[in-house]
Amino acid sequence: MYQLAPNIELLFTEAGDYHDRVRAAAAAGFDAVEMWGPTGADAPATPKDLPALKAALEETGTQLTAQLAEPRTQFMIPPWDHSEFFRKLDEGVQIAHDLGCPRMVVGSGTGFGGWKRQVQLDKLVEIYQKAIAQIDGSGITLVLEPVNVRVDHPGSLLDRTAEGVYVARGVDSPYFGVLYDIYHSAVEGEDIETELTNAGSLIKYVQLADAPGRGEPGTGDLDWPATLAVLRSSGYDGPIGLEYYPQAASDESVRYIRDVAAQA
Ligand SMILES: O=C(O)C(=O)CO
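# 3-hydroxypyruvic acid complex -> structure
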């Protein structure tokens, strides 16, 4: 049985503010949620009401499993000047601590100015070794997310799971791993079993959506019982973020994947 964490940017939006989405997720029987950064999908320029969010998490006993190291622009490391990224990293860690969140999601950005791919991957290793040193002692794990470039993130550097694994091996820290997003991987045409076997214990968080379309499981082509069985046999037993754009009402959209996850 996997712990599922609805993404409150995309699910339970019917409830209103982020803190009410936490309450709605808890009322629907979830004990975990995930979110993007201190700003969110609703109003990218406006900070979330973090005290209200914290109160809702505590009142309902809900675990925040992951947050993006935002603002969202910082999920994308700029090509040249990385100082803003490192500054935001400290802010993100502070927020994660306040909200009791153990993981922060980080990305590659669009790469580093036309160098050979291998050089750019090694640059990512260097940046994240520095990031891990900077947040040493915080207890927060950074999870690096390869994202698909075919549909959602054209121009991003890191689109292959195996390259995320390469970077994680290079960073070589128990507080650094890969976020394996089943949707992004499927859109990239990857074979889940091959990727998970290669990644082993470096997968430190998982998200899902069906493909194509990025809706809830059951709206696309993926075989969910088989997919979660492969995930289970890879050894991953952590939470799974439900990061999809629901096509049905939120509480209906979760039904099928909950059934599958309960048996996985
Ligand atoms: O922005 C995206 O597509 C993500 O998957 C973030 O987690």
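# post-check
Strands lie at 4-6, 32-35, 63-68, 103-106, 141-144, 176-181, 203-208, 240-242.
The pocket of 3-hydroxypyruvic acid is lined by residues 105, 145, 147, 152, 181, 243 (CB under 6 Å).
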